## 1
Amino acid sequence: MKYYGRISSIGLSFVIQSFYVIYFYHFLGKQPELVLWCAYPALLGVFYWMGRQYDKATYYSERDPLTNLYNRRFISHVFDKIQAIASRSNSQIFVLLIDCDNFKQINDQYNHHMGDTVLRQISRMLVMSTRKSDLVARWGGDEFLIVGHYKDDEGLQVLIQRILESCGNIQIAKGIRVSVSVGSAVSTSHLQDDLTYLIKIADENMYGSKSRIEKTEKLPPK
């Protein structure tokens, strides 16, 4: 949780107290009353509480309540800032779209509580598999999104493979197999691609990859 609200509130309380001190010294020509000094800790406490409520509201407005990942609203809001940073550093942006392959089957065969457990476990693996600078979000339902700065294709493929392996190793309960499909998209060098377009490309690549895997699994053994 960030501290913007608390820092701002404490700063505001300091400004108000300073105003009263300056008012008594310079305009009234006397010492501030003792009650003002005694009231300052209470004022500080009230402003700190107000700042904390603001920070909590901001935090939960940016997070998915089930997985505690960033939510769709937050990613959509900050994507332009990510593009601006990438533009200044002359780099590109990658987007990964991750989908749980058998999520509907898990929900139908077991229950929604088990489905929620699977989503939380996938979320944990995605955070463990990525860098601190990458943004991991729950995009909706059983879909997740990762946004980060692109270095090269080799590094991106390593990340994708790490995600596939870590999610494939999730142990929920006996008989429950968890696997995910991943689609990727990389912005052009001119950073003209918006988030909607990159997600569309990643989605197409994800379902293309899923179709190839399904065809391979259906092939008869040699």
## 2
Amino acid sequence: MIRAVIFDFDGTIGNTLPLCIAAFRRAIEPLAGKQLPDEEIVATFGPSEEGTIRILAPHAYEQGLADYLNCYRELHDMCPSPFDGIPELLEWLKARGIIIALVTGKGRRSCSISLEQYGIARFFDLVETGSPEGPCKPEGIRAVLDRFLLKPEEAIYVGDTASDVASARSAGVPAVAAAWAETADRETLRRAGADQLFPTIPAFREWLENSLCR
């Protein structure tokens, strides 16, 4: 029986990946003294944005981080709302007593900016953010299990990338592929071995409705 739904953020809750890239470009290019193509920025993802800035502008870390957070907030109108259906889904889960958690690679401050922008912070019983040292989602998922005394099979992790599927596997929980973002690659998610894959949020909710009734 599912007792907890654990969500990724970027590409799962909202279409924030383009925002992240745009904020990095605006904040870091002046410090790096060169143009940063999307591929170079995305290649640094895994650590939180603090880790990304250490890679892209190690000589100007403090300035880079401050500028990034300012740009991230200023540019958030690029994606002013979460994906259609997410607030209603969170409300529906909360009404049924399901534990809702967030495990993201985002840093604490950028995550707070987005949760505030979207007005959904109140839904999450626990938020685990990223580390500048590198990917740590399996540890975040396990922290949720430990906090709420959950067995791995009582939770699911919902994310939009192959690394999210791998993180769920590493933590021993079922992996649900959120394939509703423009940036999601459904074939890659299938090859990664997701237990379930949903192209739309309504399809995911329908599956949850059936699963929670068992």
## 3
Amino acid sequence: MSEIASMLVTHRKASIDEIERAWHGDVETILKWVGSQERVEECAVLKTCNRVEIYIVSQRGEKVLFDLAKKARVSSRIIDFHDHDESLHHLLRLASGLESMIIGEDQILGQMKELIQMAMKAGTTGWMLETAFKKAIQVGKRVRKETRINERSVSVGSAAVDLAEEILGNLEGKSVLVIGAGDTGELISRALMAKNISSLCVTNRTFSSAKSLAECLGGIAVPFEEMKSRLKVADVVISATAAPHYILLKDDIEKAMAGRENKLLLIDIANPRDIDEAAADIPGVELHNIDSLRNISSENMKQRMAEVKRVEAIISEELQLLKAKYKRKQAEDLLAVLYSQAEAIKDQEVRKAMNKLSARHTLGEIEQQVLQDMSHSIVNKLLSEPTKALKSAAERGDNELLASLAELFRLEDTS
């Protein structure tokens, strides 16, 4: 029987570069390719900076996805394969913010809405995937309404963005330079884009990493050797590299401030530090480092983690309701085929009986109606017990019995 299966490449196992290389093309291209594969009945794709997730409906989902991964040459080392129940559980956790790099972040919910609408517009989804995503989005909203999972900054990177906002009043319309495109640099950049800044510039020693991150978030990638020239126009600089030495000296910042009227906010969250501490002595420059942020983010993380159990309880409750909905639909589909086949046989046999009787007698409307009613009653009574058995098997999740009943009654359309 057809069920949902999924294949995930996420930040848990893969780097940004590996995620970028995992599936070539935009979402529409991937949807078209996956949807064209044999045995794929429905498909949807979630593609963000941190993940590429492919969901399909198929009678042999695991094999179909395994073959897709081989065709796309995606290493099994970075893939998670999920069956029907695992896929549903993951979707609810994802929408609730429990699978994000920043626990409880809100951006994923909007991304899920946008991407399922894209799949629906492309005509690659049906009842099964649309039901799953609709439920996931509902659960994500409920979680944020009933818990505090998305409150307070929980990473040093997001705390740095909050600090910048607190110092400047707000970040709307500000130009921000992020130095470093690793995990922390990504967290900073994602948090910044939610603040409606005017421009995000990302720089990194490996330019391709900066380019991938900037393109994903709608920012600008700057070659590392051009970084110092960007200091002249930036309102805020947040640095988070793994360099073993200063990458910005006091002299570099003095040159950037020459002839400049606006103040410059520097936030250094690297360890060891990226920015020369002496820069704090330059007029118009305000410098903060990681020490002032660690305690804030640590305490906030504790508060968010305290909410995780409440979130998981909501997910568990909603998951049971969702599973029950699929089980009912499974039984309804089988019964629809069963009754359709029975009605076809009944109509055929009633016509034969009427033809034989008409050859010897004239059948009036009353006689014809009696034959129809009698045959209809026989069908309903014969199928009464199988109907109860199908519904009961579906409610219990007894897939073996469902399959046996489908085979017994030759319900090929749903086998």
## 4
Amino acid sequence: MEQTNTPKKGCILVSKPLINDGFFEQSVVYLTAHDAEGSLGFTLNKVSSLIAQDFIDEFSGRDTIFYGGPVEQDALFYLHGYDKLPGAVEVGNSLYLGGDFELFKVLYAEQKELSMPLPQPKFFLGYSGWSPGQLEEELRSDTWIILEPPFNIDPLSATSDAWRTLMKQMGGKYALWANAPSDPLLN
């Protein structure tokens, strides 16, 4: 797990311990796009109380929906490892965003029934977005740590403890923050 100063598609953004932002506090964001038009990603560790079946009748089980970010929180997005899904966009590290949703539902149901070894998809409400130059400004303000792959967490299976896990793995001053309360004044 290597830190870098340059954001790019396929990296992870880890919020610094004292970020003063309600949504991004203790967040881990998988960056799916970064170019002249801005940046886009999905927060991997903000768990909602919703499940995929709440939105799509064909889905069964308890697939958790995560809050992907503060933008378009009424839209459902999904990251997955189905490399042959038409319309899916490769977003780094053998992960794909979206694609033919009707076919996805069929593939998803089949892999559930057959216990196929396909990666479990991850569902999000909303996304994290930055206008051109906005993420770079936040980086200059020392808001984020950028991690390049390979990561010590799997973006598709990261849970609510991903931020603490990464802080501990980075060690040093970050490990100290891993178990600290989000508001040190409440300690």
